[in-house]
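User: My collaborator sent over this chain with a note saying "see what the structure looks like." That's all I know about it. Can you take a look?
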Amino acid sequence: MNSETHSTTPPTSLVIASRESRLAMWQAEHVRCALHKLYSRCDVKILGMTTRGDQILDRTLSKVGGKGLFVKELEAAIADDRADLAVHSLKDVPMQLPKGFVLGAILEREDPCDSFVSQHFASLAELPAGSIVGTSSLRREAMIRMRYPQLDVRPLRGNLDTRLAKLDRGDYAAIILAEAGLKRLGMEARIRATLEPAESLPAAGQGALGIEIRADRPELAAWLAPLHDEKTAIAVGAERAVSRALGGSCEVPLAAFAQWNGDALHLRGIVSMPDGKRVLRAEESVSAPDLTAALKLGWRVSADLEAQGAMEIVGALTTMSHADGLNTAPNAAPDATPTGPAS
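Assistant: Without extra context I'll predict from the sequence alone. Here is the result:
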């Protein structure tokens, strides 16, 4: 946490907007407790909400509007003063925030890796050919297909508990989840293996929590300042710069992960086709970066990927996704509200 002095006039009440999944509520409660430690007389409440992303479970995110479906309702609550702030898994926050919104704080990162979860197998390498592996992420799908083309990778939607229930009843031989979510809910025992970045490069922002607020609330930004972790913010800033430059969305298997090695920040980026047959990679380091230098690092890595043909992949997949969306639109739910992406 940042040790800077916060505003001399402490808040008397704050409302946190949160999705209602167990993991999202844990995250909101984590921030609520941190704020209460800072401002013991402040009444901090959590406003639970259901979003459209939570309601649409029969299609992949890339075909129903992407991860923005998980935050729009929370932003609406902030905009009309029903809430002061929203807590998000940063990997689920769109690269471009709506006008008038900012990330007021980024908390210290939890483990950013993916995890292998299975009832009967210890690793992806142990799975017999034809085994069904579940994931909600095109990025994870591409990473698996790249290394294990003999496996049958299928979509997996729902919150963390729903996904684990599908595994436990035998729908999948294994599933891939974000390690951070399992650890936050005290479910480390479900992790059979950690997928290191060399095997499954994390998504931009994975493992970090971001607090979204209105840009016209400088006093709120000051109250949140002690929760901000600068090293995490610099690392995820570089990652999100890669994704932003390439138009990163759920439609494209894109990974970006920045890792501190002493005072140096090393950034890796990957763009691929979902079948894992075409994979573009780039990486670069910078010494002792501030946020501005980290953003420039992200732009250089994205430029390297573009030079290799990344925008051809992005364009092709975006066109395919839009065509699929038109084909499935008649069955889409009305303009309701979605709930957060699963881990």
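A starting point for your reply to your collaborator: The CA atoms of residues 182 and 188 lie 6 Å apart.
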